[in-house]
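Pasting two entries for a bug report.
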Amino acid sequence: MNIVVCVKYVPDAQSERTFNDDNTTDREGVDGLLSELDEYAIEEALKIVEAGEGEVTVVTIGPDSASEAIKKALQMGADKGVHVVDDAIAGSDAPATSLILAEAIKKIGTPDLILTGMASTDGTMAVVPAMVAERLGLPQVTFASDLTVGDGSVTIRRDGDTASETIEASLPALVSVTDQINEPRYPSFKGIMAAKKKPVETWSLADLGVDAGQVGAAGAWTAVESFTKRPPREQGEIVTDEGDGGTKLAEFLAAQKFV
């Protein structure tokens, strides 16, 4: 079974994240890493292939530094990587991102299964998987907490607040997985060394036949007009309980319209 996993290089949540002068997210002047939620998709792909046969290809979009996301996936055990990098991509929104991913997957070939994380840890929109599936004309099942590949089909369990749903789709299909599905492995020393010899292709928009005018900030459907840094936290008020602590707490909650 041939599986493509879409991964993303995101700013480290522990770093001081900010925007560029054009109000796009600064992805180069900040430490980054493979989106944590994508590790679950990589792990699931590796488990499926290890139980049978096939290969796992990871694809990412982003600046040169985004190659680190592919590197981590290869160290975990993926077979090869594809990095789409082009200056015109900067500032792309979800529709543009889905277009680039869809065209990259077409160029890779026709995978039996496409896996993604449930969302990226920087955008947290969770809409790109559905958009990619729509562009490819594939069935898509999202938020999988469990996944089973059968003969020509994939079955997932989606756990909601009030019920769990079992959903089946014919292959090829796109599935997004949650952080409940498995426990991602750590790269071993052997995996780290092996990753150095695994192939990684670098493609531009021209290689994919994508018009630069369809992507980037100029082609985005929405734009950030301005941003303001979150103000520093202020020291809280200490109230000494002299028998009226409950009353003071209730008054504070009422003043803040919490009750």
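Entry 2 (this is the one that rendered wrong in the viewer):
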Amino acid sequence: MQIRITDEKDWMLLKQVRLAALSDAPTAFGVSHQTATQYTDEQWKERASAKDGPEFWLAFMDGEPVGMIGGAISGRHRYNMIGMWVEPQSRGSGIASRLVEVVKARALQKGHRRVFLDVSPTNERAANFYLKQGFSFIEEYEPLASHPQITVQTMVWPSTDGI
């Protein structure tokens, strides 16, 4: 297995994986599949190259992309983990843990001691996975942008002390 940060030449792979994620788990992300399919090739290239936005990493098995994750600094100057997804047939293989470790390492490289993410507490599989990765829930809630009827709760790593 290989994990690497994307650049502009990876835009089609990023698009492929992102659209697969949005099809597989449509209520787990802040953007809808319908919205993402309307992005132009230039927008995908910008996303893959991290121009003025989040960085993305792809996980590969036997040369094929099987997962993704992103990291971005929010308007609140927090380092946020976003877009985490592993294809169903590769789940349980350790890919997800390795993707999370990449984002934690990048946050530390950029001088952030904490990583934040949002997850629906009713998405028990994801919430339990993040708890096992050292994240904990904090008392912050907001509607999911793509599905405002779903409330997501913020989780933080490594600790909630002193927030």
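Dev reply: Rendering is fixed now. As a check, the viewer should reflect this: DSSP finds five helices and seven strands in the chain.
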